[in-house]
Amino acid sequence: MDRLIECVPNFSEGRDMDVIKRITDAIEAVDGVSLLDVDPGAATNRTVVTFVGSPEAVINAAVVAGKLSAELIDMSKHRGEHPRFGAMDVCPLVPIAGVTMEETAEYARELARRLGEEAGLTIYCYENAALKPDRQNLANVRRGEYEALKDRLQDPQWAPDFGPTQFQPGTGATAVSARDFLVAYNVNLNTTSSRRANAIAFDVREKGRIRREPCILTGEVVRDADGKPEWIPGSLKSVKGIGWFIEEFGICQVSMNLTNVSVTPTHVAFDEVSEKARLRGIRVTGSELVGLIPLSAMLDAGRYFLRKQQRSTGVSDAELIKIAVKSMGLDELYPFKPEEKIIEYVLAAQSDRKLLVDLSLKGFVEETASESPAPGGGSVAAALGALGSALGTMVANLSSHKRGWDSKWEEYSDWAERGKACHRELLALIDRDTDAFNAIMATWKMPSKTAEQKAAKEAATQAAVHQAIAIPFRIMEVALESMEVTSTMVDKGIQASISDSGVAALCARSAVMGAYLNVRVNSGDLSDEVVRQDFLDRGAKLQEQAIELEREILQRVNKAFE
Length: 562
Prior knowledge:
Layout: E1 4-7, E2 10-11, H1 17-28, E3 33-41, E4 46-53, H2 55-72, E5 88-97, H3 101-118, E6 122-127, H4 138-141, H5 145-152, E7 173-178, E8 183-189, H6 194-204, E9 209-210, E10 231-232, E11 239-246, E12 251-258, H7 266-279, E13 284-290, H8 295-308, H9 317-328, H10 338-341, H11 343-350, H12 361-369, H13 377-400, H14 409-444, H15 451-492, H16 498-523, H17 529-560
Helix pairs in contact: 1-2, 2-3, 6-7, 8-9, 13-14, 13-15, 13-16, 14-15, 15-16, 15-17, 16-17
């Protein structure tokens, strides 16, 4: 697996597109880095940039961007709605693949050191990269913003972690961190009152608001025994938020950072802001994503809103995303383009690899028919299985909203989810089977002149052969699992689609049998006799089960025609 980290620097410039482009062009020019997103905001006068790559490449690109920000941005002239204290205001690193948070924190500290030494920036480390406990919270690090920075730097307690200790009017200070994936999410309100928007933000953000005496005239701050202000927590965990007016759109927003979407997902934040706004006589009109969001967060949102409608959630990812966008009004301010806003889609679009599953049906058939040995029987078996499980899923989805069956929608939704999980995995196995074949061929080209080379080649070959057996074996398992959905739909699904259930069973059975042929042919090259026989024995049992289950399903289908 490639080791990937994401970098999301925020620059205090959102109006001069030439400045932004010079910075992003420099990032793109660094070898090993992919620029994913550039999101400027005129009202905030801030641009959020997202790029990924190997840790070393990302650090190099961030240093280049830091140097340019120092040259091109003058903080002494900056005005904007968003809290800020530096030209490169924040520069967080996020682990994406093959890298732990602990490792990412070390990379962040290395980045902080280089930004201080090579870019000449005043640096504070926060969150997981923090070198001092009181610097973990960004709001604490950035308290008072740029305007308070000169005086703050004179306090020994707030000496920077790296870089110049003297106040630099042009660049201010930069906060560097290692953190989990953060979703920057703004909810639009039908008010122009920033005070009311801020009140809603205080209602929901985890920190909440300072407790005050209930006196309208004085509203004195309530303090504890140590004289510190007491706080009333907000309703949402792992959420930071403020309210502001966006002149560009003529509306106020509740602007939130969702620091852990597994704790507070976007859809929960949207509904909670909607409710708190309603209680204050304000209406939510839509929302906005700044930067990128994980696919899982969008799919969870789609399922959430479908469940509220008592609709099946076992629909395509595209449909789930569409429901999420419409339900949260993510396209109110400008079109929401999944290929530009969902991180997995952006990464896939930038990859040079062409997947079989992305071909048209005609293209897949013609590629299979070509002189190339791959895709072969394993990929075709996976495709058959995907089609069969998709048919079973279709019957479950149709049954979930049949008139008169409203009380059973959740049962059918669960079956549709099971079917969707099967055909999603089978689609992925189409390319994995071809990859396994290509891996075997790659070992043929390995050198074998010396004893060490011969041993290395044999080890690589056996590992590739094992994978070439394990993948079609997995096709067998998933295709057989999909037949449970099909079998249930024959008895419980709408009768108008019973023939579809029969076709689904035929496809799944054929997928199991076809994949088993690949298990058998590839097993001949496996040197471990125990492992080889285990694959063959278990595969034979799976094939027997599939043949028997198909026979039973077709009996019931044909009986329905009598």
